[in-house]
Amino acid sequence: MASCLNSDDDTVTFYDDAAITSFALSSAKMTMHTTSSQGKDSTYVEVSTTVNSYNFIIDQLKGLIYNVDSLPVGTDPTKILCTYTTKNNSFAAIKSMTNDSLAYFSTSDSIDFSKPRTVTVFSSSGLGKKDYTISVNIHKEKTDTFKWSQYPDCSFAKTAKDMKSFYLNGNIVLLASDGEKTSTYSLDAANGRQFNNLNTTLATDAWKNALVNENILYVLDGKTLKKTTNGQQYDTIMDNAPIDRLIAASTKEIYGLDGNNNIMVSKDKGQTWNIDIMDSDSKYVPTDDISYIAIPFKYDNNSDYVLLAGNNATAAAYTDSTAFVWSKTIDKSIEDKENKWTYYNYDSNSKSPLKSLDGLTMVCHGNYILALGGKGLGACKETAHAAIYFSLDNGLTWHNNDTIVYPYGFDKYNTAMAVCSDKDNYIWIVCNNTGQVWKGRMNEVAWQ
Questions:
Q1: Domain contains 141
Q2: Using one digit for the tens of pLDDT, what is the confidence trace for 69-86?
Q3: C-beta of residue 375 within 8 angstroms of C-beta of residue 402
Q4: Residue 443, H or E segment
Q5: What is the CATH classification number for the domain harbouring 18?
Q6: Of 364, 393, 260, 371, which Cα lies nearest the Cα of 323?
Q7: For residue 200, is it within any domain?
């Protein structure tokens, strides 16, 4: 529809379509936290323009406008400036939070987005309109906070000398050894509060010869390789297995150690075994406190990355203060491609290497690889459970901070603990001595 003015050159065209074509925040009041040089915490309020970097999705079909990445905790939702554009000069009006009245949707006055707001866009012709619901999502918790919850003590763990835990098909399965046999226990990771005895007994060292691969728990029970999907009923894969230890797994492969400490590989789920390729002598392969993580290789979606770490009390180099660390990248797209294990040869020039900790255990936590353990071994003089270490570079360097820490009240006098992570990125810790059970995760990992 067109309106003709006095001159033929002054023709104004009106359009029937109405839409918001872009939306962003300009600024918002934020409560900031600071710590003085004396260590005192204080807060102050500032108007921040950093909110402009948060992208908003416009779903034209459903009439929804929202941010996927939530604004930081401390953002005041009632004092937000925004900017937007409309199609063909259509006019936007925002509905009152208390009644059905409409007012001009201003970009110069702050808007209250503490609740989703309804905005109606009217076409320039007055014949068309479209409603939108705008939601501004704000974190209610700090991203860099690690929250722990304590569960009822596990009586079975109190007298255990050694133990490991695994996430298996919705359950936390605990293998605990009393020095004579390994017993198995299970807890429902989603709804359980206490471990139940599965009444299944394995060999003394079975607890440290177990791993989960593709929802199956593999256990080397003496010299018999077994598998289970629940920790209670086991099927035998092979008797007289040619491995002495079961140490790690990737998507396509399972790894063990033979009597000479060579890394062995099975590419058929434990049916056959061969010596794997290593770039260094087998004397540097860990024999104690062996732990591993397997993750997609960040630079190639078709590859797995396996990080293997532990201690080696028999190695000549054990006078060092660092753990024995190896890695392997497996290309899943090429059948039978040989990939070798690489040894991390730490020396005095190495930056932030992994410490040699008693009971060393690694777990994945979002983008982090975490390493937990007791007192330092060899030349490492670390106090038991002094810190949880993390790596963001696939295990090359390790650090600690004030965020990723053991829970308050954690039993630092335990002599054995079992650590694993579940499908929801919760970290589970079970301690001997007191039998403490802890479950926790970092907020930013929960939101990933």
A1: no
A2: 889 888 999 999 999 999
A3: no
A4: helix 443-446
A5: 2.60.40.2340
A6: 371
A7: yes
CA 345 to the chain's CA centroid = 27
- Reference 202, options 238, 177, 227, 167; nearest CA is 177
Cα dihedral sign, 236-240-241-245: positive
Confirm if 265 and 252 have CB atoms less than 8 A apart: no
CA dist., res. 414 & res. 154, Å (int): 13
Helix, strand, or coil here: 213? strand
- ∠ CA 41-44-50, nearest 5°, is 115
Q: Which two tokens stand for residue 396?
A: 């090359």
Terminal-to-terminal C-alpha distance of the chain: 49
Tell which of 110, 135, 160 closes a domain: 135
Helix (H) / strand (E) element for 247: namely strand 245-249
Segments of the chain scoring below 50 in pLDDT: 1-5, 316
> Residue 83 CA to chain centroid, in angstroms?
35
Give the total number of structural domains in the chain: 2
Residue for token pair 């722990």:
148
Q: Is 87 helix (H, G, I), strand (E, B) or coil?
A: helix
pLDDT at 41 (0 to 100): 67
Half-sphere exposure of 238 (CA within 13 A, CB side): 11
Q: What is the pLDDT of residue 437?
A: 97
Q: Can you point out the beta strands (E) in 152-215? A: 162-168, 171-177, 182-188, 196-202, 210-213
d(CA 362, CA 350): 20
Stated as kind and residue range, the H or E segment containing 445 is helix 443-446
User: Do residue 226 and residue 320 come from a single domain?
Assistant: yes
| Model confidence, pTM | 0.76
Residues 255 and 200 reside in one and the same domain:
yes
User: Is 118 inside any structural domain?
Assistant: yes
Residue tagged 């390994």 (tokens): 182
Structural domain containing residue 182: 146-446
